[in-house]
Amino acid sequence: MLSAFFSMSISSTALGATPELPRSSPAVTAEQFLEAKSILARVNEIKSMDKSSLSLNEKKQLRKEMRTAKKQLKQISGGVYIPIGALILIGIVILLLL
């Protein structure tokens, strides 16, 4: 029973660390989907930039822009992601309590 619980919870978590477009659900409108797509395009553009020639202030602005983009994507997706490390820790605690 415990292994079934863990297999279901691991399969329902986000395993990647890269930002993803929100899954199609009734809560995500077409406008939000297009907004998320444009945010991801900007994030990929920033990641591919050559930042060695930028000044300190420009780098700082890019970091702020990346943080706000990450916050916006989280707000659009509305999902809660449980890291794998936390799941393992919860599993160990449950095993110790049993």
Can you summarize this structure?
By secondary structure, the chain is mainly alpha-helical.
Helix content: 55-70%
By DSSP (H or I, 4+ residues per run), the number of helices equals: 4
* Overall strand count: 0
Distance between the ends:
13 Å
Overall 3D shape: flat
Q: Give the structural class.
A: mainly alpha
Task: Give me the oligomer status.
Answer: single chain
SSE layout and pairings?
Elements: H1 2-11, H2 30-47, H3 56-77, H4 84-97
Helix pairs in contact: 2-3
3D architecture notes:
With 98 residues, this protein is an all-alpha fold. Helices cover 65% and strands 0% of the residues. The chain has four helices and no strands. The longest helix has 22 residues, at 56-77. It starts with a helix and ends with a helix. The relative contact order is 0.17.
List keywords for this structure.
single chain, 98 residues, mainly alpha, 65% helix
